[in-house]
Amino acid sequence: MESLIDNESASQQLEVHAARIRSSGILARSTHLHSLFEYLYQCCLANKIPKELEIAIEGLGREENFDVTQDALVRVYMHKLRRKLYDFYDEEGKSFSHRLQLPKGEYRFILQPQDNIQHTVTSASTNSTLPVIRITHRLLGGIIAVLLLINLALLYF
C-alpha cells in the first residue's frame, strides 16, 4: 500500500494501528519515540513524507540550525522506532492483517500485509547480532575468569 490514506479504509486502519501501538506501552517512557511516532503519524495523515531535517526540528524539537550531517539523532530514533514496531507486531500485533512499517531509508509509515512482511522481519532479526555478541562476550569473560582462577590456584599450590 504505497499511499496510506488514499481511502477511508486505510485511514481507519492507520488509526486502529496507531491507537493499539500507543496503548501497548511498546514506546515505553521515551519522549523522543513518542514525539517521533506522533509526528510521523500526523505526516502520514497529511500524506506528507518529511525530510530528515524536518523530523529533527518539528518532530524531535531540535533547533533550526540542527545539522543532520553531523548528528545521527533522527536516524538513531528511526531505527529504535522501527525495532519497537517489529517488537509490537511480533508480540501483541500478531492478530492484525497488516503491519505499520517504517521502510529502511524512508521517513514514512506504510501499511503492509502480514504475509508480505515475513522475509523483512526475518532478515531484520538475522541482522540483529548484537545480543549474540553480548552473550559471546559474557561467555568469553566467564571463561577468562575461570582460567585466571585456575592459574592463580596453580601458582599458589
Explain this structure.
By secondary structure, the chain is mainly α. It contains six helices and two strands. It has a two-stranded antiparallel ribbon with strand order 1-2. Strand 1 and strand 2 form a beta hairpin. The longest helix is centred in the C-terminal third of the chain and has 27 residues.
Task: Give the helix/strand layout.
Blueprint: H1 8-24, H2 31-45, H3 52-59, H4 73-90, E1 98-101, E2 110-113, H5 118-127, H6 130-156
Antiparallel strand pairs: 1-2
Helix pairs in contact: 2-4
Summarize the entry for a quick read.
With 157 residues, this protein is mainly alpha-helical. It is built from six helices and two strands; from the N terminus they run ααααββαα. Helix 2 crosses helix 4.
The average pLDDT is 84
Class from secondary-structure proportions: mainly alpha
Number of helices: 6
Q: Topology as H/E string?
A: HHHHEEHH
Number of DSSP E strands: 2
Helix residue percentage: 55-70%
Report the span from N to C terminus.
72 Å
Task: Return residue spans where pLDDT drops below 50 for at least 5 consecutive residues.
Answer: 118-129
The order of strands across the largest sheet is 1-2
Task: Summarize the biggest pleated sheet.
Answer: 2 strands, antiparallel
Rg, rounded, reads 21 Å
Amount of beta strand: 5-15%
Q: What global shape is seen?
A: elongated
